[in-house]
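Thread title: Can someone regenerate the structure for this chain?

I was given the following input by a collaborator and told the matching structure tokens would be attached. They weren't. Posting the sequence so someone can regenerate them.
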Amino acid sequence: MFKKILIANRGEIALRVIRTCREMGIKTVAVYSTADRDSLHVKFADEAVCIGKPPSSDSYLNIPHIMAAVEITNADAVHPGYGFLAENAKFSGICADHGIKFIGPTPDMINRMGDKITAKDTMIKAGVPVIPGSAGLLSSIEEAKGLARDMGYPVILKATAGGGGKGMRIVWEDAEMERAYDTAKAEAGASFKNDGIYMEKFVEEPRHIEIQIAGDQFGTVCHLGERDCSIQRRHQKLVEESPSPFMTHDLRYKMGEAAKKAAGAINYESVGTIEFLVDKNRNFYFMEMNTRIQVEHCVTEEVINYDLIKEQIKIAMGERISGRDYEPQLHAIECRINAEDPYNDFRPSPGKITVLHQPGGHGVRVDSHAYAGYVIPPYYDSMIGKLITVAQTRNEAISTMYRALSEYVIEGVKTTIPFHLQLMQNEKFRAGDFNTKFLESFQMQ
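Best answer:
Regenerated them for you:
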């Protein structure tokens, strides 16, 4: 059993980890930037250490400062949450070198899945379906054009070290390639300090469906069902649900087995997610692996009654997992409540929350670090919290979500609540008729 865990993160995920640690009898250490000194994760942890100025590079990405906090508080483990250093192999290795348990995979596992080209090659060897594309990084515009002509347009350029849509461009014809190629490389270099890009065949009308997996230190891997993350804007997820309304029993079995092969190929240890694109004919292709807890892990927790943070900590302590595969028994939906203005192209809306009333009642869960008087800083992700509803059926979960959104009051900043209210009433969404392009034609009323 760990005696004390330092959470190298902020906001709702830090608070989420603190709550599970308290239930397990483990002391916690919060780290925070000067912009986050009044955040709830700081108030609820057993100890708190300021690690720098507001910019992430000076605080939540500053490994020396975080390791200093580990040392002065005598923490024996670090939970990285998601984002920031959660998939940083260097940080995982430094923790190991100092005898501190990184609650997540080893540096080798992170490296093998963090680079998209290496991950794709690993999946091919493991027999997991992948999207047709370049054998490696593109070396020139001429190579890109030749490969695109051979595969057939449309194609998509992606940053090998990328994520969140950065360094990603869809190309529909030869005439667009040069500009797209140059822009993708420049954006990749600026965002990840690695301008390597590769090409894949662009899958039209896809669903974004991911499989939650868990693996222990003894080679056992299981899957915990799927999440449909197709409602997204500019490759950023806004709504997630489980099970997917597009899923069949046969497809779930095939995708679950493929996800276990993917995790088994690197002897994966911890919880993680295998993300797939699924075309309109239910052919699925490996997209990437996230070697961390996901923002939307709550959806899976609600439909199978399973604390994924607790499982992650237990795996890190060397405990065995059951190895049993799970299927969703209920239906859950998550709406990300962000400080953004949906009537103004989702422009960020940082500032002070003057009034806050969170919904409740049967089947309603809110994961949030916000409160009345809390100031949302402009330096980080704009998420205020996550609203999750769970019910016996999808229609009931949607109805509960609409009711919960209707009583969710946040004043002082603009939020995505009006968008979610309109989405829950959209006929196509309610019918499960959507894909990753759904929001391109969605108009706010």
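The chain has three domains: 4-103, 132-201, 207-441.
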